[in-house]
Amino acid sequence: MSDTATKRNVKSYACGTADFTDDAGQECYQRHLMYDHVVPSHEASQRERFEAVARSLRDLLTQRWLLTQQTHDQENPKRVYYLSMEFLIGRALSNNIINLGIEPFVRRELQADPRQDWQEVIETEPDAGLGNGGLGRLAACFIESLATLQIPAMGYGLRYEYGIFRQTIENGFQMEQPDHWLAEGDPWEVARPRQTVQIPVGCRFELHDGVLRAAPGHTTHLLGVPYDRPVVGYGGRTINTLRLWGAASPDFFDFGEFSSGDFVGAIVDSILAETVTRVLYPDDSTRAGQALRFVQEYFLVGCSLADIVARFRRGNDDWQMLPEKVAIQMNDTHPAMAVAELMRILLDEAQLGWDEAWDLTVRTLAYTNHTLLPEALEKWPVRFFELVCPRLLEIVFEINRRFLADVQQRYPDDPRRAAGMSLIEEDGERQIRMANLAIVGSHSTNGVAQIHSDLLRTRVVADFAEMFPQRFNNKTNGVTPRRWLLAANRDLAELITESIGDGWVTDLSELRQLLPLADDAAFRQRFWETKQTAKTRFAQWLQTSTGQVVDPNSIFDSQIKRIHEYKRQLLNILHVVVLYNRLRENPALEIPSRTFFFAGKAAPAYQLAKLIIKLINNVGRVIDEDPASAGRIKVAFVPNYNVSLAERLIPASDVSEQISTAGYEASGTGNMKFMMNGALTIGTRDGATIEMAEEAGEENFFLFGLTAQQVADSRGYYNPHWHYQNEPETRAALDLIFGDHFSRDEPGIFTPIREALLDRGDYFMHLADLTSYAQAQQQLGQLYADRDAWTRKAILNVACSGKFSSDRTIAQYAEEIWNAVPCPVAEGDS
């Protein structure tokens, strides 16, 4: 799809605005407010008021939602189906209001009631617990862009009842609490029990002496109950659907079993079925947790493929048309079982021959890879397939037999290649390599940043890229500017629109019109004021919600992402300790006041990541108590990181920390959000940060550290002890940490971090980059002292962020992978 076509297809159209008249909106809102909960309107709680607004909006967008579905059914275009285990959609109310173009009316309606505040109503909505990190947030941005670009599409995921977990901090440690985001229901979703799908499971589970055991050979079933949520494109022209599957048992309370005395079996079946979609990311440190995750992936694929095929068959009799009408995108390896499941459908239900079924499968499926970490490429024990889905295992074995025959024919004297490319890992416990399955069974494998795609082809799966060079491509990620600038940063969005018009909302490349304004003193002043307003607003919110007090006049330096060694929150806090040591040694040292924000969750079983959180909090406490540093530097760990927190902190941040070990971050999308909100990036040459620096100029970034090639070349001889012995600031910082300066009441608690950095070789090369990082941080502080120079670079970053819109990314997917085109919905009465 060309840029011109993209612009044409996203012209703002405030669909339904005429329907949102004061009378209609007032009547709808009051009806829901009073009758849904059977309370007088003046006694309604804030939650009840939120639900009234949300349900009023859903009522008013329903006709457009139905019209979108009807148009797609009538036109029978090619449809895109996006399969993802995560959709980190955040709150829906404000986003839907903005995309529908009805914010003025809603504000008037709510402000007419003196008992409520507009912002409080928005914040009553919980963040949907449907994802954890960048993978899920990307999926959420993508489905919004699909709707904005008017591309017929559906997202498929799971309806997790509890999400991942709610994070609290106690004595510096992460504590995990249930995140029951559905406790009061979800006013956006529509249950579709009549479209329930039945999924076979090749075993049943029985209690033996209090232990739950799988009994193979006794096929049972899971029910997949669909719950639909509207996905509103900007302007309201197209409203696509996100379908989430909830698991249930078809045999819930089997009266025959109960009467015969096997009531335990009936209850066990029910509990196990409901457990499938109870929680996002079960603890995979246990065999039971791994098995549950496997069943979740099988359940998602089985339900979604059944639904996709049913939709295809409603308008198409010829199976040969499947790749012409259906594009299925697998978001990482989690839905990779779609390869085997689609083959099963085509072989067993459509009764096609193997070659025909395989051709259709490959041309229908596409795969996005999101990791360069070999250990993150999923592998599932063959035993899991034998117990849960034995027919899929038969198909995988046959795919592998035929594929290895091709490999052998092309590379007859290379057994190493065949062993590495096999879908089955034979060393130790036999496992299915899901990335290999996804690559072999699809026509496209894409990375999500240019460096990631290059490394994927040349290092991670080089043999596959050599065999299938035409299948590999790059699609650099993007984020939706509607949520991450228009909604999240109102002051800056208004300044931009006042200066260059509102075309940037649907064509982010128009931000380049800001380039000359970087040299306009009046514009720089107003830009600076918007940032200061955002910082003050965030500081007030932080104190009210967590009790932490920060100075909005300090540099807000933010690293907000999943806690992981390769993302190197540890490098960040090591630099804070270096800075703290400088102040202890020289209290008269002049440095700009700095607030270092950290936010993110560690997987419950990832003990070292949780210990890094503990170190961050302990360092922050000691710095606050030391007169040499108090008021000059501050560390703030903000708990329970989610979309709503990001929407607050990103607009307020001066500095964006993107400091992963080079060659390990696939792309990043937080880096893009910070850039378009006027933060300057300090980072390694990794992921999409490289492309961001190319757009804005490296002189407007603070880049440091080893390159991906240097990291790779260092393997085998890198010695972290050299940095400890030869870099005084590095040694002093480590001695302070491991000498219990930050853990006087908990001596030795940070020993595992010392072991990771020094005894086990510092795999992610924190010490190799620490000195370079500290130098870049010093340059950053010096620049901040020159307000005009800093603001000019910030404006240039915003102006050059246009490439990183998810609209551009989706337009490329549509043209280059899916061959999908827009299907406009009529603009008449809705």
TrEMBL record:
Protein function: Allosteric enzyme that catalyzes the rate-limiting step in glycogen catabolism, the phosphorolytic cleavage of glycogen to produce glucose-1-phosphate, and plays a central role in maintaining cellular and organismal glucose homeostasis. Phosphorylase is an important allosteric enzyme in carbohydrate metabolism. Enzymes from different sources differ in their regulatory mechanisms and in their natural substrates. However, all known phosphorylases share catalytic and structural properties.
Keyword Glycosyltransferase in record: yes
EC number in record: 2.4.1.1
Cofactors that this protein relies on: pyridoxal 5'-phosphate
Record-linked PANTHER family: GLYCOGEN PHOSPHORYLASE (PTHR11468), GLYCOGEN PHOSPHORYLASE, LIVER FORM (PTHR11468:SF3)
CDD domains: GT35_Glycogen_Phosphorylase
GO biological process, one term: glycogen catabolic process
Annotated keywords: Carbohydrate metabolism, Glycogen metabolism, Glycosyltransferase, Pyridoxal phosphate, Transferase
Gene Ontology MF terms: glycogen phosphorylase activity; pyridoxal phosphate binding
Pfam name, any one: Phosphorylase
Modified residues (N6-(pyridoxal phosphate)lysine): 673
GO CC, alphabetical: cytoplasm
PROSITE patterns registered for this protein in UniProt: PHOSPHORYLASE
Gene label: glgP
Gene3D superfamilies linked to this entry: Glycogen Phosphorylase B (3.40.50.2000)
This protein's name: Alpha-1,4 glucan phosphorylase
Catalytic activity, reaction form: [(1->4)-alpha-D-glucosyl](n) + phosphate = [(1->4)-alpha-D-glucosyl](n-1) + alpha-D-glucose 1-phosphate
